Amino acid sequence: MESTNDLVTKNFEAYPDVAADILNVLLYEGKNEIKEENLLASPTETLYQGKKKLRNQLEDIAKYDMADGEIRTVYLFANQTKKDPDMLLRKAGYIGGIYREQYEKKTQNRFPVIELVLYWGKRRWNENRSVHEIFRDKKLPAKTMSYVDDLKLHVFELRNLPEKVRKRFQSDMRIVVDYLAEGNDYRSEQKVVHKEALIKLLRVLSGDENVEDTEAILQEMNVKEEDEISMCELFDQYIRKGKREGKIEGRAEVIPAMIRTCKRFHISYQDTADSIRRELKLPDSEIEENMKLYW
User: Which residues does the chain have with pLDDT short of 50?
Assistant: First the structure.
């Protein structure tokens, strides 16, 4: 059974604009090579014959890049939260399964397969990134190694992307990678497109597995997916609605409620303080005292 983390991450990446943005930034240096309207969901499962029965292999996200009605390329996303020394061998299985289907003429045309490993872990990835690296300690003759196909692993450490790379993102993914790099000090006025999916992802990235109330919170705020609104505006709207309906009464309840909700929505420390200042008109000293108490 898939974890909440896996489901939430895949749901976010499945949006065509997010998937296209990830590919354009990480593979094509921010150039608009992949158009979201050309991306179609492709099967994430391939089958192979085991010793006794058919077995399946699953990828997290698979997208066809279409051109003139044919598959131009298939892109695979493999999400990793932990380092995996066998990731290269798993990749060989995933990609081999798709090429096998082309060999068996189960596809209408032939196309290349590209896999990205999106690594969300905190420790740096120091596992092997190529087949040749796996056999480095075997001290095989150079001539032998020259005949070994050198399959490579394309790993992107999302918590360690340089700022110049992060700035190339145009979708909600920009908020995600900036949050991973800067933590609670991150400030953004970028408009959120996929509100529920983004908030759920930010919550699971902070270790919160109980994210099923996100939809109910947004419905309570009367926030729709098509609304143009930033994370800071989302938070302010939540607080104003609560005050109007009498759900938050009195300064003693307002301040901790604002701070708790802000942390749930992953608003930065400074943006939280600014929201309290706008809504409650408190002096800076009192705001800072409460922030230290409830943050």
Answer: 47-50, 54-55, 246-249
In DSSP terms, 192 is beta-bridged to 229
Say if residue 20 is exposed, middle or buried (CB neighbours under 10 Å; 0-12, 13-18, 19+).
buried
Distance between CA 32 and CA 40 in Å, rounded? 17
What's the pLDDT at 146? 94
Per-residue confidence (pLDDT) for residue 252, from 0 to 100: 57
- Closest by CA position to 82, among listed 122, 116, 115: 122
- pLDDT, one tens digit per residue, over 175-234 is 999 989 987 666 677 888 998 899 889 888 877 777 888 888 788 777 777 778 876 676
In the structure encoding, which two tokens stand for residue 174, read together?
A: 């920009």
User: Domain segments of the chain: what residues?
Assistant: 1-160, 190-295
Structural tokens at position 18: 């997010």
Nearest CA to 294 out of 246, 262, 266 is that of 262
Closest listed residue to residue 203, CA positions, set 191, 212, 194, 193: 212
Place of tokens 């056999």: 135
- Residue 80: the pLDDT is 93
User: Of 240, 232, 241, which Cα lies nearest the Cα of 192?
Assistant: 232
**Interatomic CA distance for residues 60 and 240, integer angstroms:** 39
Q: How far is CA 63 from CA 5, 81, 139, 200, 289, in A?
A: 20, 21, 39, 22, 49
